[in-house]
């Protein structure tokens, strides 16, 4: 590392310094800084507010010098990174729209790499490839326009990606048992709603409801609540399959009868048969708080007594 000191009329001197120097209070470091060059080009991307998946959308690129001069024939590129995000629609926060059995697999890619024209403009098709996704996505587009010197200006733009044209949401009631468990002695209404990408209810949508039993071995062998491989597991047990169609208000309801299921965790998965969007949630079927407090099988207090006033610790091992 080098530092330059002002030596007055004699000029300047360069002194080589180590990256840190010892001190009685401990080692300390010279601050290392890099020059951050501000953008000298104005960059604009013209694209829809929402992007579809697996369909081409036309994107416009415009570059201009900050002084207003035309940025003609400069090299540019646009790189895209896609990430999953929680699916939400206005006014429907009580509904769950994401599918925990699906995981997004996506790699960053270059959507555009060429020169802008003599007016600083370019157009290109943008396709977001998606094989499977738990729900809504967000694409981050990083655009760079290069000066002839090699320096470049950058713009970062983020837009939502809608992989489905129709979505199904599910609302599971909160149980009053331990950890929110639902009582096996009761019936629990599962509210459903079908909406389009604008969050408007859609009637007449065919929905498939499937209940899976999740045995304890799955939770032992898999860390956390990762269910991305659960559906494809050969040991997965389907216990219920139901079909229904949303009504004129785009809604539907199905009753989960706890008497028909074993104790433990279950996965409720609802899919739109035509759009292939699914939502899923796990529930635990067990005692309610009232049943647990009144059950003879519930935990009881044990009364212990000793046959001696004092007990030597070494005798505990015999």
Q: What descriptive keywords fit this protein?
A:
318 residues, mainly beta, Immunoglobulin-like, 2 helices, 43% strand, elongated, disordered N terminus
Query: Per the principal axes of the C-alpha atoms, what is the gross shape?
Result: elongated
CATH class group of the largest domain: Mainly Beta
Query: How helix-rich are the residues, as a percent range?
Result: under 10%
- What is the mean pLDDT? 82
Radius of gyration: 31 Å
The number of helical segments is 2
CATH domain fold name of the largest domain? Immunoglobulin-like
Low-confidence stretches: 1-15, 19-23, 291-305
User: How much of the polypeptide forms β-strand, as a percent range?
Assistant: 35-45%
Oligomer: single chain
Distance separating the two termini: 69 Å
Strand tally: 20
Summed up, the domain count is 2
Structural class: mainly beta
* CATH superfamily placement of the largest domain: Macroglobulin (MG2) domain
Order of helices and strands: EEEEEEEEEEEEEEEEHEEEEH
CATH architecture of the largest domain: Sandwich
Q: Write out the strand line-up for the largest beta sheet, numbering strands in chain order.
A: 6-12-11-8-9
The largest β sheet comes out as:
5 strands, mixed
């Amino acid at each position: 590392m080098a530092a330059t000191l002002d030596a007055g009329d004699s000029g300047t001197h360069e002194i080589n310094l180590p990256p840190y120097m010892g001190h009685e209070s401990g080692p300390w470091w010279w601050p290392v800084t890099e020059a951050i060059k501000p953008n000298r080009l104005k960059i604009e991307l013209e694209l829809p507010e929402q992007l579809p998946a697996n369909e081409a959308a036309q994107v416009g690129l415009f570059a201009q010098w900050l002084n207003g001069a035309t940025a003609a024939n400069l090299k540019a590129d646009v790189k895209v990174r896609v990430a999953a995000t929680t699916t939400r629609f206005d006014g429907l926060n009580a509904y769950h729209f994401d599918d925990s059995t699906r995981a997004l697999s996506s790699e960053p890619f270059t959507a555009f790499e060429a020169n802008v024209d003599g007016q600083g403009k370019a157009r290109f098709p943008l396709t977001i490839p998606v094989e499977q996704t738990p729900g809504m996505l967000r694409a981050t587009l990083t655009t760079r326009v290069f000066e002839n010197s090699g320096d470049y200006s950058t713009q970062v733009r983020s837009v939502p990606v809608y992989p489905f044209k129709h979505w199904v949401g599910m609302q599971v009631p909160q149980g009053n048992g331990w950890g929110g468990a639902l009582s096996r002695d009761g019936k629990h209404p599962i509210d459903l709603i079908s909406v389009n990408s604008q969050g408007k209810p859609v009637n007449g949508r065919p929905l498939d409801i499937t209940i899976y039993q999740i045995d304890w071995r799955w939770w032992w062998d898999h860390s956390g609540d990762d269910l991305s491989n659960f559906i494809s597991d050969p040991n997965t047990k389907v216990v219920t399959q139901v079909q229904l169609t949303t009504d004129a208000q785009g809604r539907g309801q199905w009753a989960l009868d706890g008497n028909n299921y074993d104790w433990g965790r279950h996965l409720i998965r609802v899919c739109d048969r035509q759009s292939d969007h699914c939502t899923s949630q796990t529930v635990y079927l067990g005692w309610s708080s009232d049943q647990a407090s009144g059950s003879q099988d519930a935990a009881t207090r044990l009364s212990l007594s000793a046959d001696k006033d004092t007990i030597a610790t070494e005798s505990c091992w015999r």
